[in-house]
Amino acid sequence: MITPIGVAWGILAIESGGGNTALLPPMVLAGLGAGLAFMPIFATVSSTGLHRYSGAASAALLTAQAMGGGLGAALLGDMGAPPWWAVLCLLLAGLTAGLMVRDKGTVPPGGQPALHHRTRGAHVG
């Protein structure tokens, strides 16, 4: 929620003609929000427990981030979309990311989640 608020504030600052000093606080707020959003995403990807695939997972995340930024700039900038669409897209992305993150519990060093770990020969039931 912090990033869309910062972007909306920045749009208002641009539309009011406040100048460069009026853009500094909204840009800091939007950057703070982006940093707070990306950190849990990177931590979730890097702590999946499948250490042998951590490089591929990190590369896929960075690729998706770069592609999303490029597509967003192309769609919003080249097509002449109103600036408020950026705020709407950020809110939609935040909602989607929030719904996709689930706590899967801790993963032991062996790489298999504790919920699916069974001892051979043990009776479950």
In short:
This protein is 67% helix and 0% strand. With 125 residues, the chain is an all-alpha fold.
Can you give a write-up of this model?
Helix 1 (2-16) runs antiparallel to helix 2 (20-46) and helix 1 (2-16) runs antiparallel to helix 4. It contains four helices and no strands. The protein has one domain. Mean pLDDT is 76; it is low at 114-119. 67% of the residues lie in helices and 0% in strands. The longest helix is centred in the N-terminal third of the chain and has 27 residues, at 20-46. With 125 residues, it is mostly helical.
Observed structural traits:
elongated; 4 helices; 125 residues; 67% helix
Rounded to an integer in angstroms, the radius of gyration calculated over CA atoms is: 20 Å
What would the principal axes of the Cα set say about the shape?
elongated
Structural class: mainly alpha
Relative strand content: under 5%
